[in-house]
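Database export, one record per block. Field names are fixed; values are copied verbatim from the stored entry.
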Amino acid sequence: MSRRSHPQDAASARVFRGWRVVAGVFCLMAIASGLGFYNASVYLEVVVAERGIPIAAASGASATFFVAFGLAGLPISRWIADRDPRPVIVGGAVLGGAALLGLGAAWETWQLFVVFATLGVAFAGISFVPGTVLLNRWFARRRALALTLGTTGLSIGGIAITPASAGAIERTDLATVAPWLALTWTAGTLLVVLALIRPFPGRFGLQPDGDAPPDPDLPVVKAEELSAAQIYRTRTFRWLTAGVTLLMLSQVGALAHLYGIGVDRADSATAALAVSTVAASSVVGRFLGVLVLRRLDAMVFTVLLAGLQVVSMGLLALDAGRPGLLLATAIFGLSVGNLLVLIPVVLVEAFGLGPYARIFAMNQLIGTLGIATGPILFGALRDAFGSYTPGAAAASGVSLVATGLLVLALRARTREQLSARATS
């Protein structure tokens, strides 16, 4: 009889199949961030320099990337909540390739908006929502580690893919490089889906973390979970989402203009190094975060990282030359890396796995308000003052407010947990 017909054999396999899924999510995140998330600041700088598009207009187009990403997340989450996410990922592969191909021919502002919006939808289709849903399905006890490893692909994309594409564009031009970017996005994503992504552990007779199936003679007790609609009304979710929205305003605003900040204060080589420093620091931060989460509550850790973002944006506002820029981006990367991992962990720990896909997507959708505002705010302040310093100072202040909101979310969660225990 075949190996697949014996669930107990699969459960005792030497290497848990879920780690292949982690590798697949890692690769998808690397492609999505390297050619989309981190590269957005490169595209913005290039279209301003090459094509004469005003920086405020280009910033608005860049913001549509994040708006489209947030808006697309909710329908995607509803569709994949109990389904195979691979069709969505394949759709993201095709859309992303088309968008990057179109980027090479986008000389008008309206064309740039269409390209960035399409790329944002594609980014949603292959990155956070499907990736974190997959990892939450395959892991429970080792969820934080799996999320850390999988989402580290975001940073690796920024370290390896973004500088390489920026260098290629600088040596030639965007129109020449765009078809190769499109091919990398589409072909790379499709290969990962075919080779590594599998939707459910149950199809292989497995439980999360590779555990053996439960004893059929024992009763199954499931924890009672709130519906997504009920969760939306809790103070924990509201304060948490408000805090994340402001953190994303600060974070994405800085990331979208980071390459431009480096060029302004030094040169293109320093700008590329600053982007890579954020990405590299976020890798270090993620693995340190796994160790910290063994001893510290995930939401408490989130508050501390928000405070770290206040510091990094404050340092960025000082305009202390090349060393100051690299120090600020190194600290910034610690918060960027961990905050992306912590939001899924916090939501699952607070509300359970059942409603996760929908509440994560709603959190991301509302967070789009900050994501869209950040690049525009940075660009407008740069145009108004001729410097990125006011934008960085504003980002530090916004991050400080976000930290306060997350403290309120932490207090609300404690009260709601005590209330739930009292009524159970």
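Remark 1: The chain has one domain: 9-208+225-423.
Remark 2: Residues 73 and 415 are 30 Å apart (CA to CA).
End of record.
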